[in-house]
Amino acid sequence: MTMPTAERAAVSARADTGIPAIPAGVAGHRPRVVILGAGFGGLNAAVALRGAAAEVTVIDRRNHHLFQPLLYQVATAALSPADIAAPIRGILSRQANTAVVLGTVTAIDVVGRAVAIGERRVAYDQLIVATGAREAYFGHDEWAETTLGLKTVEDATAMRRRILLAFERAEDGADEAERRRLLTFVIVGGGPTGVELAGALAELARAALARDFRHIDPKTARIVLIEAGPRLLPAFPPSLSAAAARALTRIGVETRCGVAVTACDAAGVMVGDERIDSRTVIWAAGVAASPAAQWLGVAAGRDGRVAVNTDLSLPVHPEIFVIGDTARVAGPHGPLPGVAPVAKQQGAYVARVVAARLAGRPAPPPFRYRDYGNLATIGRREAVVDFGWLRLTGRLAWLVWGSAHIYFLIGFRNRIAVALDWLWSYLTYQRGARLITGSDL
Ligand SMILES: Cc1cc2nc3c(=O)[nH]c(=O)nc-3n(C[C@H](O)[C@H](O)[C@H](O)COP(=O)(O)OP(=O)(O)OC[C@H]3O[C@@H](n4cnc5c(N)ncnc54)[C@H](O)[C@@H]3O)c2cc1C
Known about the structure:
By secondary structure, the protein is of the alpha/beta class. Among the domains are: about 160 residues, FAD/NAD(P)-binding domain (3-Layer(bba) Sandwich), CATH 3.50.50; about 140 residues, FAD/NAD(P)-binding domain (3-Layer(bba) Sandwich), CATH 3.50.50. The chain contains 12 helices and 27 strands. The protein is globular, with a radius of gyration of 24 Å. The structure holds flavin-adenine dinucleotide (FAD). Flavin-adenine dinucleotide binds next to helix 2, strand 2, helix 3, helix 7 and helix 10.
């Protein structure tokens, strides 16, 4: 096959720099940059490419960007889904060079340089894969059927439904054993998601629902948080893990560390030798990368993450970048964690690499993650904050946590909505989004 003149020119112009060529002008179009996923990584890459001389296409299976760190507040009826999600088209509407495609990526043809959405093919010159992560059940995929995960808006509303229905069914004449099962909530995984969910659930039961029922006392609900490792919040310093555990105990959460869940079914879990009966088991214990490694035909570790070069491109395929929860990137203390700031910084970085290639400039230096710290909240007035140089607990930490989350939310409307919702529930102890949606009870 002969290479078109423009492509040949681009390749030879770059051969001396070692920077992979972008076949500018092939078939009369501008270079095509395709971004898979409009989560934290993909969206940041897209926004950073707004002025680029390229046709940017963002493909996502949802029409909205989701602020996952506050999903647990939707699951516990503190916020509505629209408060933490924003339409991708709306966010990118002012970017003339960017198109949005609603579709589920099913394969990537790395040789033919095209992404498959079922039968449809979307050709690319540069590809950024940012399809995030999914739940992992440590070899027990069947546990997905009886536990509740938390990755999407649908997961959060399903969890909210299950939690609120448990109180309704307990009120509605269940026998004592079943009532106990209904009012016992088990959360597996003591990372930030598990800790935040446990705190929010305890406050829902002890405050927001406290006066609403006649036959049950929601305050007697049992909330058990299980962590297989030796302490909660393993990414935080031990003193902050201990502070979080104390704060949870104060609001009535039972915490179990150093014991693993060995079985899950529709009526409870086995924790070591102990059986805990529960109708609501929440899985916050592990994630694995999206199936990008399969699409790309590359090997991946048990967590499914794809190893990349220091510029986040794929070995052998420098025109493909993998970022965020889907990528495995070495950091100073092991692989970088699957958190939003890593994905955002990587998105902005690959946009710089692509922009440099488009402009024929030398590539930026290798990606380096700037870790600004870790935050987690426990209920409406406690949090733990670790900036490395500064560690905070209690109300001040909560204020830092709250301000940071409002600041990072996408869109002015969402910031205002969340701030008002929080103020309202802080003053009244009420939860504004206590809706049981779905028709079958
Ligand atoms: C409940 C929860 C709480 C969290 N709390 C925090 C926190 O407090 N702080 C923090 O820093 N991090 C937190 N995280 C982690 C953080 O959200 C992730 O690290 C971050 O979202 C990763 O960004 P990403 O761009 O790699 O993937 P994502 O943000 O997950 O985006 C992936 C995108 O790809 C799309 N997609 C996936 N598969 C396909 C497909 N086949 N076709 C088309 N589109 C597809 C998805 O719809 C999604 O929009 C939390 C995560 C969860 C689930």
